[in-house]
Known about the structure:
This protein is of the alpha/beta class.
Amino acid sequence: MRAVAFAEFGAAPEVQDIAIPEPAEGEVRVQVRAASVNGIDLAIAAGYLNGMMEHRFPVVLGKDFAGVVDAVGAGVEGYAVGDRVFGVVTKAFLGDGSFGEYVTVPAAVGLATLPDVVSFTEGAALGLAGTAAADAVDAAQLGAGQVVLVAGATGGVGNQAVQLAVRSGATVVATAHSTEEEALVTGLGAVEVVDYREDVAAQILVAHPEGVDAVIHLAGDAAALLPALRDGGRFASTLLGSSEQLPTESATVVPVYASPSTATLDRLAENVAQQHTTVTIERVYPLDQFGQAFADFRAGTVGKLVILID
């Protein structure tokens, strides 16, 4: 099969022909129709995870995927050949990625059915970003009447977080800079916009002198955002490994670790199917143009970048 992979540490990823994987016990094989780019893909390609995770060469890049079940391993229940699925590759090693024609994934976690009304392109962009957003919004414990700042609102995770926060009943303040970015976040439901190139906390305190009830931290300096939070508020961050990284006695700091359970993925897919939320796709690429997709990701995105698999 054709896949974006690298054969050894230090080698640049390239499209190459490798063997089609076979599903192990408890796994399904998915014929991938689309996969989206995430920061971790670039980190793996750059070697940042060397020594941190086992690498099984050739390492195929890619975490998010959407496609059709092609084979079912022993002991798998709930999935059959031909099922439309999406999710996140969750294996404890690096090697089996989604930037290829096929990928094998555990059926127990990181996999869910993709409703017929949700496209493969949308499904491919939903798994990791949607999970991170859902877990962050849950950690923020939002409710009606509360005000939340979503820092990093223009990215894939932020797009979902804004919409999920709005659905919780909260008033959303989103970060954006350009006219295009402002139009995006307000279209997703943000009521107020602050410029992330300026002092975000200072802008917040002009309109909300006591501070906002919660901060969802997806981008930027956590310490610089903390003054925007009222006493007793919640600071949910996908970028902090522990609450000790942001010492404070006036707020609750909650590090968020995205966990793509089937229940969470089902909830995300149903939201899209019912048009409660949307998935913003900025651009799509053929597999051979993955390098351009990576370059565009590094330059900054408004929404998600998706690689289509022929």
